[in-house]
Each structure stands twice: as C-alpha cells, then as structure tokens.
Write a structure and sequence with these properties.
Elements lengths: L2 E9 L9 E6 L4 E8 L4 H20 L5 H21 L7 E10 L2 E7 L3 E6 L2 E4 L6 H7 L5 H6 L19 E6 L5 E5 L1 H4 L4 H8 L4 H14 L6 E9 L1
Antiparallel strand pairs: 1-10, 2-3, 3-4, 4-5, 5-8, 6-7, 6-9, 9-10
Helix pairs in contact: 1-2
Bound molecules: calcium ion.
The site of calcium ion has 6 residues, from helix 5.
Length: 239
C-alpha cells in the first residue's frame, strides 16, 4: 500500500477582489478536489464551493468502495447540483466551474477533470501534465493550428469548452495512474499554470516540506503577476 501526504492552498492573487477558486482534501481517505468558478457577481464562488462540497461529501461516503466509478459519479452529481441551483436563482444563472479531482487507493490514483484546471505529476525530475485542458487553445494545439508557445500567449487562453453546471449533464474526462514512491502530484487552477512554466513548477515541487512547496508555488505565481486566483493541492507519495 502506498502512503501519501497532501496539502492545499488557495489565494486570491494580486488583482482580484474575490477568490472564486475552492479546494478540499482528506489525506486519510485519499481524495482531493480543486475547482475554479466563473459566472460574475460572485456566482463563481458559489459554483466552485458547491463542486468541492458535493464531491467531498460523495467521496467521503464512497471512497472505500474503490475505483474510478465513484469519482466520476461524484463529479456528475456536482454538475447536476450546480445546474439545479443556477436554474433556481437568477443571480446564479450563468455560474459554472472547472474541476479536477483525485482519488488515491492502494497503488492507484484515479482522476477526473472538466475544464482547464490541471493535474501534473513530477516523477524522476520530470513534470508531466496528466489532464488535457477542455479549452479553445488546447483544441487549436490538438489540430496543429498553433503550438504550445502560441497557446501560452493567446488572448483566448481562458476560453474553456467544458465546465460543470452549464448543462444538466457533462462529459467528465477520467484517467488513472500507478502510484510510485517519490511521485509528486499537483492539482492547480489556471492562475498558477498561466503564470509559471513547466520548468518552474518542476523546480518548485522538488522539496521536502509540503506546506512550503504549496506556499512557494503560490508565491511564485503572485510574483509573476498574480492576475488571477491561485490554487494548488500537492500530494507526495511515500513508500
Ligand atoms: Ca482562474
């Protein structure tokens, strides 16, 4: 059985008045969820909070039953709940949120995501992005229309093509990975990944104290401008 530690941090950043990101995790049960809300007039805060609450509640109840299925079900449930509340309250009509969530069991990590919040893994000094953004620029990269560098500087990089809460149903992207000792996983919102390059993220993840790592990532994104809310959850796997 792999063991792990995890720690999360969410920061408003330098320019925004509100933090529309939300994070939740339970190291003992082995799950974590991060959401980046949108919708104006603080509706984004409501959407991301519902996502973290519903997914957390659901995983708390089913985490022991295992596998990817409960994780996917939890995200679908959050989608339905955000959509339901958006329909009921005019102020919240356009709210939605990205989400990235992980469930760790035995030697496996299961992940689910919607939108452009990301999951990275640092293994053997190499950073790999395990999630695949649901965004306009990612689609353009996939079609070979632009390269990764052009995607970074694109004015459309925040246009996402999938989010929780916009429709009564959502297609959740799922994946899984084997946990190896020394692995470091990072869940983050685009307030981090827009500001830092892979080399910086890899360097900042390479340290001993998880709270210091998380703070170091947030500080670096703030130093690089901090235009958006910045959220991270860092997970380190031990023997
Ligand atoms: Ca954001």
């Amino acid at each position: 059985m792999a063991t792990w530690k995890m720690v999360g941090l969410s920061d408003t950043g330098q320019l925004r008045e509100h933090n529309e990101d939300a994070v939740g995790w339970d190291a003992e049960q082995g799950w974590a969820v991060l959401a980046d809300g949108m919708g104006g007039h603080q509706a984004g805060e409501v959407a991301s909070a519902i996502a973290v609450e519903v997914i957390g509640d659901e995983l708390r109840a089913v985490a022991d039953s295992g596998g990817a299925l409960p994780l996917q079900g939890a995200v679908e449930l959050a989608n339905a709940e955000i959509h339901r509340q958006a329909q009921q309250q005019p102020r919240l009509r356009t709210m939605g949120t990205t989400v990235v969530a992980v469930l760790l069991q035995g030697e496996r990590l299961y992940f689910a995501h919607v939108g452009d919040s990301r999951l990275y893994r640092l293994r053997g000094g190499e950073l790999q992005q395990l999630s695949h953004d649901h965004s306009l620029v990612q689609e353009l990269v996939d079609e070979g229309m632009i390269d990764a560098e052009q995607a970074r500087s694109s004015g459309q990089k925040n246009v996402i093509t999938r989010a929780l809460g916009l429709e009564s149903q959502v297609e959740v992207a799922m994946g899984e990975a084997e946990l190896l000792p020394g692995d470091c996983y990072l869940l983050c919102s685009d307030g981090l990944s827009d500001r830092l390059r892979d080399e910086q993220i890899a360097r900042l993840l390479d340290g001993e104290s998880l709270p210091q790592l998380a703070q170091g990532l947030v500080d670096a994104a703030n130093t690089a401008g901090g235009e958006d809310n910045i959220s991270v959850i860092v997970i380190r796997v031990w023997e």
